[in-house]
C-alpha cells in the first residue's frame, strides 16, 4: 500500500466560517489611533478607505464570521488546498519528525493572498465601489488583487515598489493579464510620490511609500477605496481558512501538531495557519509551539520596538501598536527573500507580547538553501518568503534527529517561487550576502516615530 | 447548493495502467526505419539511446501496461489532476455548451511533461544508467526531466534552443534549482553543434538541432542515455493517464464528451487526453469528435507532408513516417506560442491519416486573446501552447451559441503560463504578428528529405 502524500478535503468539507482570534485572547489588542488626534479610530474614520463590512470585521467581537456564498464559490476554484506530508524531505534529513506543509501555491496566482483579496473585492463591489487601489512589493498581493477585482468587475490600480517593478517584469505582466493598471512607486502621480522623488529621484521605493500613494489616490475619489494584503485584523481573519483546513486534515490522518511554523512579513500567512492552532491551545485541546520566522534583514518581531507607529511612510494611516523598524524603513536592495514590511501586524505583535508564540530570524542564504533542498526532495520550488519557515522546519527536524523525538511539525508553504526565480538565480550564483539588520538603525529610526502615550 | 467547479478523484482512484492505443487501431502505424539502411529498426538499434523497458513499451502490442509502484508514488505528488468545469468562461461566452478543462499545470513544474519524465527517469535508473541527456525548447520538458532525474538520482544534461535559453532565463534557473546542467543549443560541445555554428554563428537553434546534440552525447557514453518529451509511442502512452482520469471524472458528473480538443506540437498532451477517448469511440462506447489544434506558424498536420523524415536536424534519429515541415525547419523568431517541432508524432500522424481525428491551425493573436479571456474568467493564466486549444474551444462554443447545441467540450490545459509571461507581454504590447507558414517553404524543404520507399 502506498504512503499517502496528500491529505485532501472535499469541496463540501471546506470551512464556511473565518475565525477571529481576538475574543479568545486573555486581553484585547491595543486599538489603532487617529494619526492627528491620537484618539482611538472609530468605524467612521476608516470609511473613506474601506467598505463598512470590512470595517466591522476589523473590530468584530464575534469568534466566527460566515464566508459569503459568492466568496466560497471563488475559493472552490482552488480550495480546500492540500496538506502534504513531506516524505522526501523527511527521508533526506533522516529525521524521526513528521513534516507536513499546507500548500497555498495551488491558487491561480500561486500564493495565499487570494484568500483575502477575493472577499475584499467582493465586499467593495457589493457596496458599489468602482475601483480599488493597493500597493505591492514582489507582486504577489498585487496579482491576487488584480485577479479578485476582475472577478467582481472592479478596476484595480497598483503601486509596485520600484525595485521589484524593475526586477520582476513577469509579475507586472501577470497583473496586466488580469486587467490591472500598474505604476512603479514612488510615482509622480501622487503628492507623496512627488515629494519623495524630489528628495531622492532614484528611490528604490518601499512598501511604506507605495501604501501612501495608494491611500492618497483612494481618499481623493468617492468611488475608490483602498485595500491591504496583510497587517490588519480582517485580512488575517480571512486567511484563517488555511489553519481551519489544516486542523481537519491532520485529524483525518489521526495526527496533531507539536510545532506550527510560518514565515512573517506583515503576518498574514503565519496568522492564517496558526490562529486556529492558538485557539486549540487556549481551549486546552492542543499544545503546539507556535513559531514565526522572519528574515534577519527585516526583523520586526525579534529586533523591532513594540510601540505605536504609522503603517506607511507618509503617515496617512492610523497609528498601529506593533513591532516596528520605523515607518521610514527601506529594505536593503540585496535582500532577495521577500517579507520586507517595516512593521508586524498589531494582532500578531500583541499575541507575541502575550507569550502565545515564539519568533526567530533566519539569514537568507540558509533560507534559500532550504528552498533548494525542498525543491529537490519535494519537487515544488518555494517562494522566497516561505523558505524562511522551511529553514526553521529543517532546524527543528534536525533537533529531533539529535533528541530522537518524533515531533509533528506543520508549516505553511504560502506560495511557489516560479515568479521569483531571479532570486534563486542570485542565490545559486552566490550573489545574496547575509545581512543582519543592525539594532542601531532600529534605535535611530525610533527617534523619527511620533510619541504616543500608552 | 454551490455549483461544483472541480471534479476530483481520490489518490486511490488514480489509474494504475497506461493505455496503448496501437492494438485497437484498424491498422498498425508504419515502423521507424534505420537512417542508414532504411530497414525497420529493431529493439537492439535503439538500445544505445533508451533502456530496454522503454524500447519494449515503444513496440508493445499490449493494450495496457502497469504503472510501476515507484512511478505511481511520484505521480501522487500532484495526481489525479483536477477536471474543471469552466463556468466563468461559459458565462462570458453566453454559450449553451458545457466546457471542461483537464488541468495539468498542478504538477511541480507546471505542465503535463512529468507524466513521462518520471517513468523515463525511473526505467533508466533501474537499468543502472548514470546520466540522461535531452533537448528542450521553451523549457517545460527540460524542467520536467530535471525534476524527475533528481528524484531517481540521475544526472541531467539539457540542450536548450538558444533563442529560448536567452529569452526565458527563469526556465534555466528552474532546471538549475533541480540540479540539471544547461547548455544553449547549438553549442560547441558536440560535432553537430560545431558544424552548425560554423555555418551560422548566430543560429537561434531549433528542437531538431538540440536533439542532435543530446543524442550525440548520449551515444558516445556507455552510462548515458537520451530521452525525448514527445513524439514517440511510449511517451504518448505515459500521458494517457490524463485521458483515463478525465473519463472517470466525466462519469462522476454523468457527462460524456462530444468534442475533445488538444493542442499539438509533438503530440503528447493531445494524445494523453484523446487516446482513451479514441478507444471509447472505436469500441462504440463514445462518439466524440477528436480535434488537434496547431499554430499556423508551425502547421505540421494541416500543411506538412506525410512521409518518412528524420526526427532531428543532423539525421541521427531513425526515419519516422509523420507529417513534417522538413527536419531542417527553424521556427520564425516572432512565433511566441510554443509548439515548434517540425514533425508530428508518427502515431498521431497515422491516426490522422486513418480519419480518427481532425486538425485545425490557429494564429497566435487569436490564441493569446483566448488565453487572456481564459485568465480573466477562469483565473488561471494558460501556457501559450494550450491557448491554441482554448481558441478552438471558444470557436466551438460560439458555434454552439449559434446552433443552440449544448455540446460537452473537453480540452486539456497542459500547463500554466507563469514562466511564459514574456510572451504575454509581447502579445499585450502588440508585438506578436500572425504568421502563416507558407506551403512553398514546406514543398522546398521536402527536396531535402531523403527518399524512402513506402
Summarize the structure.
Chain A has 454 residues and is α/β, with parallel strands linked by helices. Chain A has two domains: 5-14 and 78-110 and 239-446, Rossmann fold; 17-66 and 113-233, 3-Layer(aba) Sandwich (Rossmann fold).
Question: How is this structure best described in words?
Answer:
2 copies of one chain form a homodimer. With 454 residues, chain A is an alpha/beta fold. In chain A, helix 5 crosses helix 11 and helix 16 packs across helix 17. In chain A, 41% of the residues lie in helices and 16% in strands.
Notable traits:
Rossmann fold, 15 strands, globular, 2 domains, four-stranded parallel beta sheet, seven-stranded mixed beta sheet, homodimer, alpha/beta
CATH topology heading of the largest domain in chain A: Rossmann fold
The value of Rg of chain A in angstroms is 20 Å
**Approximate shape of chain A:** globular
| Mean pLDDT metric of chain A | 95
Q: What is the topology?
A:
The structure is a homodimer of 454-residue chains.
Chain A: E1 6-7, E2 17-19, H1 43-46, H2 52-58, E3 64-66, H3 69-75, E4 83-85, H4 87-93, E5 98-103, H5 114-126, E6 131-136, H6 140-152, E7 155-161, H7 162-167, H8 169-177, E8 181-185, H9 191-199, H10 207-219, E9 224-226, H11 233-239, H12 241-252, E10 259-263, H13 268-282, E11 289-295, H14 300-303, E12 305-310, E13 319-324, H15 346-353, E14 358-362, H16 364-378, H17 384-403, E15 408-413, H18 421-428, H19 439-446
Parallel strand pairs in A: 5-15, 6-7, 6-9, 7-8, 10-11, 10-15, 11-14
Antiparallel strand pairs in A: 1-4, 2-3, 4-5, 12-13
Helix pairs in contact in A: 3-5, 4-16, 5-6, 5-11, 6-8, 9-10, 11-13, 12-13, 16-17
Amino acid at each position: 500500500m502506498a504512503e499517502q502524500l496528500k491529505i485532501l478535503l472535499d469541496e463540501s468539507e471546506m470551512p464556511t466560517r473565518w475565525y477571529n482570534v481576538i475574543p479568545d485572547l486573555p486581553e484585547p489588542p491595543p486599538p489603532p489611533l487617529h494619526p492627528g488626534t491620537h484618539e482611538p479610530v472609530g468605524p467612521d474614520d476608516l470609511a473613506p478607505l474601506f467598505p463598512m463590512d470590512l470595517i466591522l470585521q476589523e473590530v468584530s467581537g464575534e469568534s466566527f464570521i460566515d464566508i459569503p456564498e459568492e466568496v466560497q464559490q471563488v475559493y472552490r476554484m482552488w480550495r480546500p488546498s492540500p496538506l502534504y506530508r513531506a516524505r522526501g524531505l523527511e527521508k533526506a534529513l533522516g529525521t524521526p519528525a513528521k513534516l507536513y506543509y499546507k500548500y497555498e501555491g495551488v491558487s491561480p496566482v500561486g500564493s495565499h493572498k487570494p484568500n483575502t483579496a477575493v472577499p475584499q473585492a467582493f465586499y467593495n463591489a457589493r457596496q458599489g465601489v468602482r475601483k480599488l487601489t493597493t500597493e505591492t512589493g514582489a507582486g504577489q498581493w498585487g496579482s491576487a488583487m488584480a485577479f479578485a477585482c476582475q472577478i467582481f468587475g472592479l478596476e484595480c490600480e497598483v503601486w509596485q515598489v520600484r525595485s521589484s517593478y524593475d526586477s520582476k517584469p513577469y509579475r507586472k505582466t501577470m497583473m496586466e493579464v488580469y486587467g490591472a493598471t500598474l505604476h512603479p512607486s514612488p510615482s509622480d502621480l501622487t503628492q507623496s510620490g512627488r515629494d519623495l522623488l524630489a528628495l531622492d529621484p532614484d528611490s528604490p521605493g518601499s512598501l511604506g511609500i507605495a501604501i501612501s500613494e495608494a491611500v492618497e489616490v483612494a481618499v481623493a475619489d468617492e468611488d475608490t477605496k483602498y485595500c491591504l494584503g496583510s497587517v490588519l485584523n480582517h485580512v488575517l481573519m480571512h486567511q484563517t481558512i488555511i489553519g481551519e483546513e489544516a486542523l481537519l486534515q491532520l485529524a483525518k490522518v489521526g495526527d496533531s501538531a507539536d510545532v506550527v511554523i510560518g514565515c512573517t512579513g506583515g503576518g498574514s500567512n503565519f496568522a492564517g495557519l496558526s490562529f486556529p492552532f492558538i485557539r486549540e491551545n487556549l481551549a486546552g485541546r492542543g499544545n503546539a509551539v507556535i513559531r514565526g520566522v522572519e528574515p534577519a534583514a527585516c526583523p520586526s518581531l525579534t529586533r523591532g520596538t513594540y510601540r505605536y507607529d504609522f503603517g506607511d511612510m507618509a503617515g496617512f494611516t492610523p497609528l498601529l501598536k506593533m513591532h516596528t523598524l520605523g515607518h521610514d524603513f527601506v529594505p536593503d536592495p540585496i535582500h532577495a527573500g521577500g517579507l520586507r514590511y517595516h512593521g508586524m501586524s498589531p494582532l500578531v505583535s500583541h499575541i507575541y507580547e502575550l507569550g502565545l508564540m515564539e519568533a526567530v530570524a533566519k539569514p537568507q542564504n540558509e533560507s534559500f538553501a532550504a528552498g533548494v533542498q525542498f525543491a529537490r526532495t519535494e519537487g515544488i520550488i518555494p517562494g522566497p518568503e516561505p523558505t524562511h519557515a522551511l529553514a526553521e522546519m529543517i532546524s527543528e527536524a534536525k533537533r529531533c534527529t539529535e533528541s530522537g523525538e518524533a515531533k509533528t511539525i506543520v508549516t505553511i508553504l504560502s506560495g511557489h517561487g516560479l515568479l521569483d526565480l531571479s532570486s534563486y538565480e542570485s542565490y545559486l550564483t552566490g550573489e545574496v550576502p547575509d545581512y543582519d539588520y543592525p539594532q542601531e538603525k532600529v534605535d535611530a529610526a525610533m527617534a523619527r516615530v511620533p510619541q504616543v502615550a500608552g
